[in-house]
Amino acid sequence: MIIILKNQAPEQKTKVLRNWLEQQNVEIHASTGEFQTIWGLVGDTSKIDTDLIEGLEIVEGIRRISEPYKQANRKFHPDDTVITVGDGIKIGGGNFQFFAGPCSIESEEQIITVAKAVKAAGATILRGGAFKPRTSPYAFQGMRNEGLGLLLEAKKETGMPIVTEIMDASHIDLFEDVDIIQVGARNMQNFELLKELGKLDKPIFLKRGLSATYQELLMSAEYIMSEGNPNVILCERGIRTFETATRNTLDLAAVPMLKEKTHLPVVIDPSHAAGIARLVKPMSFAAAACGADGLMIEVHNDPSKALCDGPQALRPEEFAEVVKGVEEIRKVIA
Amino acid sequence: MIIILKNQAPEQKTKVLRNWLEQQNVEIHASTGEFQTIWGLVGDTSKIDTDLIEGLEIVEGIRRISEPYKQANRKFHPDDTVITVGDGIKIGGGNFQFFAGPCSIESEEQIITVAKAVKAAGATILRGGAFKPRTSPYAFQGMRNEGLGLLLEAKKETGMPIVTEIMDASHIDLFEDVDIIQVGARNMQNFELLKELGKLDKPIFLKRGLSATYQELLMSAEYIMSEGNPNVILCERGIRTFETATRNTLDLAAVPMLKEKTHLPVVIDPSHAAGIARLVKPMSFAAAACGADGLMIEVHNDPSKALCDGPQALRPEEFAEVVKGVEEIRKVIA
Amino acid sequence: MIIILKNQAPEQKTKVLRNWLEQQNVEIHASTGEFQTIWGLVGDTSKIDTDLIEGLEIVEGIRRISEPYKQANRKFHPDDTVITVGDGIKIGGGNFQFFAGPCSIESEEQIITVAKAVKAAGATILRGGAFKPRTSPYAFQGMRNEGLGLLLEAKKETGMPIVTEIMDASHIDLFEDVDIIQVGARNMQNFELLKELGKLDKPIFLKRGLSATYQELLMSAEYIMSEGNPNVILCERGIRTFETATRNTLDLAAVPMLKEKTHLPVVIDPSHAAGIARLVKPMSFAAAACGADGLMIEVHNDPSKALCDGPQALRPEEFAEVVKGVEEIRKVIA
Amino acid sequence: MIIILKNQAPEQKTKVLRNWLEQQNVEIHASTGEFQTIWGLVGDTSKIDTDLIEGLEIVEGIRRISEPYKQANRKFHPDDTVITVGDGIKIGGGNFQFFAGPCSIESEEQIITVAKAVKAAGATILRGGAFKPRTSPYAFQGMRNEGLGLLLEAKKETGMPIVTEIMDASHIDLFEDVDIIQVGARNMQNFELLKELGKLDKPIFLKRGLSATYQELLMSAEYIMSEGNPNVILCERGIRTFETATRNTLDLAAVPMLKEKTHLPVVIDPSHAAGIARLVKPMSFAAAACGADGLMIEVHNDPSKALCDGPQALRPEEFAEVVKGVEEIRKVIA
Q1: For chain B, which domains are there?
Q2: Given a contact as 3+ CB pairs under 8 Å, which chains touch A?
Q3: pLDDT digits (tens, 9 = 90+) for D191-209
């Protein structure tokens, strides 16, 4: 960490700061220029509150040099994290998984039909929404507990491990038999929830917030990991920009960038990012081509009951095409 | 709501859609052009899921015309909402309130000292953070329950109503004697929390999310209101943009725009928006000049213990200057 | 186009608007609801100024339904535009081209060495900057006219067609022997320049502005096309977001979305988007996987003279790997 | 400037970089930590190309500490720039000016009528668009040369100095009798134009680009100033965000922030920012309250010919109210 002091910082105040920093066990290397003095801090600066220092009158600015995340940092943990679910299904470390299923669980028949269809098409993990975060209180909020029960049925029926979203820490008990718990983009900084999930040993599927930076995503992973749960899967699902033709802007550079910064697996969700089913295939291919560890894709059941299908969902046979193409692309980049 | 159908939409599919819409009790006015057919929907379209329709293959696009929020909508509730707290302190409806206090509660002495200082300087409502949402798990997370106790002490000591942030629905019981419960920007779309707060009759101070639109903020207010709690105060506290010289970009046009769209009070938080104490005064003046219903301002206690002060906090005497200037500006625009 | 009128719009004013619209040769289909009246305009609305109408007191809002671009619009020109340069090199229509070369032209030796190297590695069109737009007036502004001369030498030497950036309409004469003229992101809305380029018959390589929408990019293409030059190549090169770990955020969904909206070729520039050389390969693969018509890639000459190389430039042998991988990926998606 | 070297940077490569930096006349203060080495550069680093260094394999990152703009920097020029136009009208240095007039010049009668009306209402400088940058090639492009002639008529008639927009360097000769030349947001980084304007001694009114940072705006001012023209007026006119209810988001914190960073005057354009006439008054008051040096406001002539008025234009009597309120607010903050 670098602290830039103002030119005429009174000596007494700089002394107070120097003492305080030394109490935090960091060493100060000062370098005095014509217009400012620079302090380079050496030691573990991850616990130093940069906002606090930046607010001091004597400080012109501050620059972090090392990352504030430790457990998620590849620098300190060079090997890929590999998470195993179900019957030896590995996420991360060069493996690739397809998380597929309907947006919302609607009935036993629906979830079991889709589960079988996506399994046949190549999906390895079943997704399905029971608790649904919706912008409008008047929109369908999911089947909630009941939906969770149906998803567990589908797990039993197909043998696939399941991933589904949690919306409140008070629901954790309901997720006991869920294989992977998803934290949605809108809850990426629900810190109380993250801390509670950190006390489990179940894998957590953490989606990037709509306007979160890579570093903030990694700090949210750090919340989970610092409580003792190392099993975090990161997911890029589009960020908010001024472009309105797509629902969000899928930031695929997140794949190589995050994999450089962290050892955690990185999965892409092309369905939510674009919000348009016909973009799922090209963006899935692109995600595979730049090195993603998996794809989360919405697949619906019955093309004839069109009105119940999300705008971003594929038919099972379209999903099968995605799986096939992705596998070929992965051979090219191997 | 306007639905734009594709040119060659098969008649059978358009019939399915037409029937479904009519079941939702909306009337369809069709207008057929050379390159597309347009359906104008007349009736209550607030419960119609636009995402769902937009996903249909026969649909080229959809445009909402009426707002999806009803209870928060000024169209249906033309009179300003006025919320009363404490001993007749009115928020909204042409009144102006100063919410002031420290970023975090640190000790009994600190919160009581600051409370008295801000009261003397003109504050009408005391703010103070007990539960602190922090990007890093290693940063100070607030005094939590204990801090809440100290804030209640300060309320007793000064007679000021208090506002403080909640981070999880499971904490609601602890907030029984809190006058106004704050929902932070990161929890603006924590829908489970919003629903629980909607079951109270306590005023809720709802901060705009970092990348939320006006409509999303109003939909989050609608979550609270649709559960039965009409006492919502909106707060603009800066949005995320590409500008990095300020922490966030304070969007003051939110004041006149929100007041046009809704009858709820609109308060500005200039402290968090800029993240720089020396911007609080000019931005407070600007907020008053464009018609805000109040200001939430961080004030710290002891300028000599600088390291404990947030970067965005004013000294009590600086806060007093803000109050004085704001009052004069309000006379000008009255 | 849909015009939403306010509820109590005085009849006299709506009559003025109605007359004016009819003079513009559009037909009005009115539909009157409880809270607003909606006018659907049928006819050619591309010349109607939406800003103007939106400003009227009687108007609540306006929604465009058909796109304001005509010549660039795939609806009216369903077949892909195919542009031929040099010795039968085709851009668009299922062909794929590699535009490669150094960021800046620095010397005859450099440009000719790089040109030969990229040709050997599979590049089909040579790029090189003579006029360089730089944020700082103190940064190197390119070799300008002299650089252009050296690029023409390289063209002669290698037989490759060349693309290079123009910064001002007054320089057009200098570009007579240039095969493709590039308009940089910062000049995407330099409308005087676009109009002048529209009078040529040379292909124009038009980069998306840093915060431009797809529609604005297409309107800038329309500026060129409406003056008579149909040969426009679109290029996505990253947009500005709040993420700072990469220089810009490459928006790859632009490929399938633009190709749906327009018949013009779409090329990706991964070098500028990320600003980081090690992202060029994965992002190039991703661009190919989602259907781009080409890649523009910076390649430098001499890895030992590292200081002269841009941060986003590849070595020729790295570029050769990109070409090889892209070709294999294109076979997969074919 | 701080350079952070990678941990295992080979000594030979760091030596090359060290030598190169020393040739640029900067001194290196090294500080070696466990995970990285930090070089603090002392001296004039404004001409060092950070992109270039950031691209080196041995470099992990780079942080600028001093600003790359010199002539626009308040650090080196602490006194406010005061620009005088017309008959002693001063811009900057505690003075406040109203730039008012129609969006577009439409006829002699119109411009002269509006000019007289705004002068009577308190405007000190007349604005009017002759060359109009429009997103669509089919929209009205302004009366161009002819409009400029009419504006000069209005200047003669009223004695007011005039400001109008230039769109291409080749038009400079036409602007000989214009008092202040405006560079629009879309041309903020038209560097060839900026350089040509730098060779004049006429004041330049430089608008912030739609997604430009403060630093980029100041670097564009520096382009003009470094060519010898110190008379630059900065203008904030809204930036692009994801909010769509307003055309752009007016960033009023730009006023105190820019005035801290630079000695140049800072003017606010509330008309273009919001794109909504009824926001002009509150946002003008807010701009005055936070210390702006002036306002640029669109005023139209004839409320009955509503269709010719921009959506963001005030009637003269509304403008008069803005002037009156702003003057009172300025007394409060004085």
Answers
A1: 2-63 (3.30.70.1140), 83-333 (3.20.20.70)
A2: B, C, D
A3: 999 999 999 999 999 999 9
